[in-house]
Input
Amino acid sequence: MTPLHSFGEFLRQTLMLVPLSWVRVLFVGSLILLLIWVLCLPKSVTTPPEGTQRWDANLKLSAALALVIQILIYAML
Output
């Protein structure tokens, strides 16, 4: 075995010690933090510069919806 194989095996064994419940909490938590960040963005950053006032011009709404769906899916797995 090369040193790279030894390092890979060490890394694999170390990561297998992390319980899957912790992994789920960290993954869903990162999605929740991303959702909070998206919702805190100012409207001027999430709308196109043309200034059209369509209901779908604010990208924050569609991004938040996509993140909420992902949070629900991964929280229920």
